[in-house]
Structure formats: structure tokens, C-alpha cells
Amino acid sequence: MNMTNQFDQRALTWDADPTKTARAQAVAEAMRRRVPLAPTLRALEYGCGTGLLSFALHQALGPITLADSSDGMLAVLADKLAARPDLRMRPLKLDLGTDALPGERFDLIYALMTFHHIDDVDKVLAAFHALLDAPGYLCIADLDAEDGSFHGPGFTGHRGFERDDLAARVRRAGFAGADFDTVFRITKNDSPGQKEFPVFLMVARK
Fold first, then answer.
1. In a domain, 140, yes or no
2. CB 170 within 8 A of CB 157
3. For every residue of 117-173, which 3-state class applies, written as one string?
4. 3-class DSSP state of 180
5. Given CB 3.0 to 4.6 Å as the disulfide criterion, which of 49, 97, 105, 173 pairs with 125?
6. Would you say 166 and 137 are in contact if contact means Cβ atoms under 8 Å apart?
7. Mean local confidence (pLDDT), 94-104
8. Which residues pair with 45 in a beta bridge?
């Protein structure tokens, strides 16, 4: 994942943004509708940041591994988890673009606003397929294709995703199906171009 230093700097104020909290809640609600969540499921959140999505889902899941490559985000997450020792959630520093696969296997993998920062999407999708037991679910929430206004000049990641292209990549990685719904919209009134940015939830099965 790119932009690790920037995420380190933003970690302390990440949870103060009400849009990020609302986005995580909206994705969690959509996942509860579309995936048969259960307290027996072993879950991995990839690119977890401060864990907003996993905190919204933990009551419906079993043990959750929260993975990120940002030390700053993981430090904030560790403080949050220290205050809730009852939760079956553990942080893990991991970048599947460069690191070896962890030894654990999972029943559910999910990522929120992470994929547009990933250089080699196909490599990470293949890693997800290897990390999932069957039957298993993959949930990716991210931006629809946009005009570059979301991050602005200098951003080197993906300008969102065309749904058909991402679905094809997911199928090539070995998953069955890739169903999409729009679950949230981010508004940036000060944007020089596109001002509304839809966020999709894609659900695929192994």
C-alpha cells in the first residue's frame, strides 16, 4: 500500500472525521445484509486503519485480525484495543504487496477504501484467495471510477475502479461472482471537478 507516511501523520485525527465513521457504519450495515455473518467466522480486515469498520462489525463475527502497513494507524488501533480487552481483535502489520502470507486462514476478508491505494491489485486478490477457506467471502468497499478530484494532483494510486474491470480481476483470482451495490456517497464541495464520489460494496465468494 502507498502513502504509509501520510497515513501515519493522519492517524491521530482519523476517527474525528464524522464522514469516515458514517462510511464505516454504512459499509457494515451493507455487509450484514449481504453476507451471512456469524460469531464462528474468522475475519481479516486488510488496510484496517484505526479499525472503524471492524469495531462496527465485531459483535457479528468471531476473532478478527486487523492488518495495516501504517505504524501510526496501528498505534492508534492498539490504544483502542487496550481499552477493550474483551474484544477478540488483534492488530497485525502486513503489506501483502511485499510480505509473505500470514499463517492464519480466514472465512471472511474485507477492505474499506484500501484498494485504490494498492499498486498490484491482482497480487493482493490472489493473496486473499489463498488466505480464505472455502466457503468464504471477500468484501471490498471502494470508490467508483472518478476524475482524479478525490485525492487531487500528485496521487499515484487508482482513480477508483470500473466495476466490470474489478469484477473480472476478482474472477481471475479464483472467486465466484462479484456483486456490487452503492452503499455510501462522499461529498467534497471544495473539489475542483467531481464533487460526489459513490462508494461501492463488492461481495465475492470462494
1. yes
2. no
3. HCCCHHHHHHHHHHHEEEEEEEEEEEEECCCCCCCCCCCCCCCCECHHHHHHHHHHC
4. strand
5. 173
6. no
7. 96
8. 66, 110
Do the Cβ atoms of 3 and 68 come closer than 8 Å?
no
Grid coordinates representing 36 are: 451471512
Phi-psi region of 177 (alpha: psi -120 to 50; beta: other; left: phi over 0): left
Q: How far apart are CA 58 and CA 150, in angstroms?
A: 29
| Other Cβ atoms closer than 10 A to 163 | 16
Q: Does a structural domain hold residue 148?
A: yes
Is 156 among the domain residues? yes
CATH of the domain at 100: 3.40.50.150
Percent of the chain surpassing pLDDT 70: 93
pLDDT in tens, 170-187: 999 999 989 999 999 999
Range of the domain at 182: 4-194
